[in-house]
UniProtKB/TrEMBL annotation:
Residues 26-483 form the Aldehyde dehydrogenase domain. This is Aldehyde dehydrogenase family protein. Belongs to the aldehyde dehydrogenase family. PROSITE patterns: ALDEHYDE_DEHYDR_GLU (PS00687). The keyword Acetylation does not apply. It comes from Citricoccus nitrophenolicus. The keyword Oxidoreductase applies. Keywords: Oxidoreductase. One of its GO terms (molecular function) is oxidoreductase activity.
Length: 502
């Protein structure tokens, strides 16, 4: 394997608070493992609630000082554009760190993670410049207008699978709006947050505006979510944790955006371009080693082409480059941690016991002691099976046949989740009809995974509340203030009537 050495500051096991690395008040640390070898690469601080208090206080003071919140949108925009430039200048270092931390194929980290983060800062910069209100013509003796204001301290809590992108999708818009941030990254994959802190500072984001406290969600989550100085909670993670976070935030009357689990259906109709549909299906379920909330782990295939598609998958999937994430040719790497590996293995065993046919894969792979699971296709899986109804979050595809368009829609909508869905068809009318009927926040037609900071994403049902990206996201990071200024009637002697009479 090609060795990459972490920069020294990522070996310090410290938080980043008020513009500087800060030791934890506790002595606990969390090992950070390289998922490709299960070897420890560094440790981070297991933060305490006292650490969180310091970070929230710093963020609150920075907000109140106006050093960021009172800048014009254009000034904030300039800084965010500089952040994007720095991400591009440091692209290789960021990609290497993200790949090492998550076990993500380096080609993916280079092409997707770093570029998406930079694009997201640039897009947020454009929104910062357009934070205007509206004049309302109301039937009152008044001039009435609205203005948008930042909320205050945003608590960002993020998951392990796309640490950089899913942090950026909160930080960039929060900062664009003039908020300050306390970020608790996932315990397994905290490194890109610590890199981000340095780059934001270098770009000119003032001290205290972005703070990182590393640690276990179980130790820190409730304290951060219900902290009296936190104005909003931005959470991405599992449905189970999200429901808990929403309950705690609700009790404390904090607004929450919650981007939660997904279990998307990908529907292949017999009229699709089948070779392309199979290629799309593979990339939809192996992208990021299946640890993609908007991945396509449930394949529904119209019965006349069901066996043909299974044969094509059986032929192609074992040849998708699988192994060392540092090899630029690798498409599928290890899972991000042992917990994921065990979860995926258990889900496949359960499906097999429930009668699923293993078309390919179906077992872990012994590669350098890392958390590898072979890309797996399971056919004839009952719709009620846990492998279909629950999110597996690994490189596993379940395949089910259907006979009619209506049945396909019913199967696609039959889980509690609703984050994404895909339609592979040659009929434009069918694409519109089915897209309209699917219960999901984003639908791809003859494609999978195309995203852009300008296009909102988010869930329906148990996949969450709120939207990230697009202009819509600004709603969740600002509040509207109405200003109504009375206009006195003209003095009697100056009214036109009074003038006429004289
Ligand atoms: P997770 O819910 O286990 O953890 C997410 C974050 O929550 C981590 O930072 C964790 O430390 C923290 N946390 C844990 N307990 C907490 C508590 N009591 N209070 C507050 N925070 C707490 O999720 P994960 O395993 O890291 O991520 C995988 C999940 O995230 C999958 O379900 C995936 O679908 C989902 N996800 C959703 C999206 C989306 O945009 N909808 C994107 C990526 C991942």
């Amino acid at each position: 394997m090609t060795e990459y050495r972490l920069p020294d500051h990522l070996r310090e096991a410290q938080h980043y608070i008020n513009g500087t690395t800060t030791a934890s008040t506790g002595s606990g640390t969390i090992p950070v493992l390289d998922p490709a070898t299960a070897q420890q690469i560094t440790t981070t601080a297991a933060g305490t609630t006292a650490d969180l208090d310091t970070a929230v206080e710093a963020a609150h003071d920075a907000f109140r000082s106006g050093v960021w919140s009172r800048l014009s949108g254009r000034e904030r925009s300039r800084v965010l554009i500089r952040v994007a430039q720095l991400f591009r200048e440091h692209a290789e270092e960021i990609a290497q760190v993200e790949s090492l931390d998550v076990g993500k194929p380096i080609s993916l980290a280079r092409a997707v993670d770093v570029n998406t983060a930079a694009d997201t800062y640039e897009y947020a910069a454009s929104l910062a410049q357009n934070l205007d209100g509206a004049v309302r013509r109301v039937p009152l003796p008044a001039h009435a207008y609205t203005q948008r204001e930042p909320l205050g301290v945003v608590a960002a809590i993020t998951p392990f699978n796309f640490p950089l992108i899913l942090s950026t999708s909160k930080i960039a818009i929060a900062l664009a709006a003039g908020n300050t941030v306390v970020h608790k990254p996932a315990e397994d994959t905290p490194l890109s947050a610590l890199l981000t802190a340095r780059l934001l500072s270098e770009a000119g984001v003032p001290d205290g505006v972005y703070n990182v406290v590393t640690g276990y969600g179980s130790d820190l989550g409730d304290h951060l979510t219900a902290h009296p100085r936190v104005a909003k909670v931005a959470f991405t993670g599992s449905t189970q944790t999200g429901a808990h976070v929403a309950a705690v935030a609700g009790q404390a009357l904090r607004p929450v955006t919650a981007e939660l689990g997904g279990n998307a259906a990908n529907i292949i109709f017999a009229d699709a371009d089948l070779p392309k549909a199979v290629e799309t299906t593979i990339s939809a379920f192996v992208f990021n080693t299946g640890q993609f909330c908007m991945g396509g782990p449930r394949l529904l295939v119209e019965r006349p082409v069901y066996e043909h598609v299974l044969e094509a998958l059986a032929g192609a999937v074992p040849h998708v480059p699988f192994g060392d994430p540092r090899d630029p040719g690798t498409v599928i790497g290890p899972l991000a941690n042992r917990r994921q590996l065990e979860k995926v293995a258990a889900a496949v065993e359960q499906a097999r016991a429930a009668g699923a046919r293993v078309v390919t894969g179906g077992e872990p792979a012994e590669i350098n002691g890392g958390f590898f699971y072979r890309p797996t296709v399971l056919a004839d899986v009952a719709n009620s099976a846990e492998a279909v109804q629950q999110e597996i979050f690994g490189p596993v595809l379940t395949v089910q046949p259907f006979d009619t368009e209506q049945e396909a829609v019913e199967l696609a909508n039959s889980t509690d989740y609703g984050l994404a869905a895909g339609i592979q068809t040659g009929s434009i009318s069918r694409a519109h009809r089915v897209a309209d009927a699917l219960e999901a926040g984003i639908i791809w037609v003859n494609a999978w995974g195309m995203l852009d900071p300008a296009m909102p994403f988010g869930g329906v049902k148990s996949s969450g509340w709120g939207r990230e990206n697009g202009p819509e996201q600004m709603e969740a990071y600002t509040r509207t203030k109405s200003v109504i200024i009375a206009i006195d009637p003209a003095p009697e002697d100056q009214t036109p009537d009074a003038e006429d009479a004289s």
